[in-house]
Design goal:
With 421 residues, the chain is mainly α. The protein is built from 16 helices and 2 strands.
């Protein structure tokens, strides 16, 4: 028994020695392996200086390999600018010389620049008198042809000169439509303006986003109206207002297109209204009074029907009434149908005349106010709810602007030391 126990003890010690031997042998090999690959595994990163030198050497080699950039030619750009200016001056001088051959009623010399011509009252009066002649809108009229060719020159200053007479042309044209006079000259000018706006807008509509009043503010979204299939608020789809609808190209003026074509011409005029002269705006206000009728009233007699304004056939009905009556009364002289597509740009221009100059021009403000009153009475007569709301709002805003209580600037800091609650 003692011999067996001794043998087991010896075996246990041998196995222990063998185990420790193998363990230390493996540990030795691991340390040797780590020491051998010490430089590759635990090597420090390259210094920033060496990295910078490497980049400089690569950039220098790339710089020598790539061709140098071509030098800028400032002389060529200056030459193009001078050429464009000379072409513009040539167009302006040609237009001025052509206008001098048409205007023979004035004894004064026509200004040599377009900017001076735009502000010249004598020349403007002469052109206005020629446009107001009974046969001024004919197709063979020299002034209409000059206006058409001048606008087609694509020179901004010349186009601005043509736009200055848009209120007078539109007023004469629309007032003469029921008389069935030949107006191919006026129609050519209006179609040129319409085509220019159609091209510049690519036929697209002009829209504006209106904040949804059902939300607490413009930074919140309402949780009302949510469904399982649609997580968006349904009311947000109705926040886009169309200021001007899409434009289709037209080559002729028909009775159903007349209001739209003239309305687009007035929209183009409104886009440049800050550069228009005071006389041009006064002419527009006078035309609005004529379009609305005298004080917005019409004759109430059994022999005359009420002229509708909300249908496409209103122009035809107006012409038939005039032909049946054998002419127009003095009260209704110049009265035309006023659909919304024509009334909308009219009200924008009147709004500028009322508030654009901050009341500095009293005469223009009074003329615009009279035009708004005439259009308001006309809309009441036609029972046109849109027109009643728009014209009435303009008149109400003017009353608020003239009220002395509203002349206080609440943004100014008061010097009073007492704060009243």
């Amino acid at each position: 028994m003692e011999t067996n126990q001794t043998i087991q003890i010896v075996r246990y010690n041998l196995f222990s020695l063998l185990f420790y031997f193998i363990f230390y042998l493996i540990l030795f090999f691991l340390l040797y392996f780590l020491k051998f690959f010490k430089n590759s595994i635990f090597s420090p990163p390259p210094s920033p200086l060496s990295h910078k030198r490497l980049k400089m050497s690569e950039s220098s080699s790339t710089h020598h390999d790539s061709p140098p950039p071509p030098p800028t030619n400032n002389a060529e750009s200056e030459t193009n600018t001078v050429t464009n200016d000379s072409e513009s001056n040539t167009k302006c001088q040609t237009a001025i010389q052509s206008l001098a051959t048409i205007i023979t009623t004035t004894t004064t010399n026509i200004p040599s620049t377009i900017s001076a011509l735009l502000d010249d009252e004598t020349v403007s009066t002469a052109i206005s008198s020629l446009l107001q002649r009974p046969d001024s809108g004919a197709g063979d009229n020299n002034l209409c042809r000059w206006l058409y060719d001048t606008f087609q020159s694509t020179e901004p200053s010349l186009q601005l000169l043509v736009l200055r007479f848009v209120p007078l042309i539109a007023g004469l044209y629309l007032s003469r439509v029921p008389l069935r006079q030949p107006q191919a000259g006026f129609e050519a000018v209006l179609l040129a303006l319409y085509a220019h706006e159609t091209t510049s807008r690519a036929g697209q509509a002009i829209t504006v986003n209106i904040p949804d009043l059902s939300h607490p503010s413009i930074y919140h979204e309402s949780t009302k109206g949510l469904t399982k299939n649609n997580n968006n608020n349904n009311s947000t789809c109705l926040n886009i207002a169309v200021l001007s609808s899409t434009l289709d190209p037209h080559g002729t003026v028909r009775s159903t297109r007349r209001a739209r074509i003239v309305g687009v011409a007035l929209e183009l005029y409104y886009s440049k209204i800050s550069k228009m002269t005071r006389e041009s705006k006064l002419n527009f206000c006078e035309s609005c009074e004529k379009w609305a009728g005298q004080n917005g009233e019409t004759e109430q007699s059994s022999s005359r029907a009420v002229i509708p304004t909300l249908t496409d056939d209103s122009w035809r009905e107006e012409e038939s009434v005039v032909v049946a009556m054998g002419g127009r009364s003095e009260r209704d002289s110049g009265r035309i149908p006023l659909p919304w597509e024509l009334l909308q740009p009219i009200l924008r221009i009147l709004g500028h005349c009322l508030f654009g100059l901050k009341g500095e021009d009293r005469e223009l403000s009074e003329a615009a106010n009279k035009a708004c009153q005439s259009l308001y009475l006309r809309s009441l007569h036609d029972i046109n709810s849109k027109a009643i709301l728009a014209t009435g709002s303009l008149l109400r805003l003017r009353e608020m602007a003239l009220d002395p209580k509203n002349q206080i600037d609440h943004t100014e800091i008061s010097n009073d030391a007492v704060i009243t609650v």
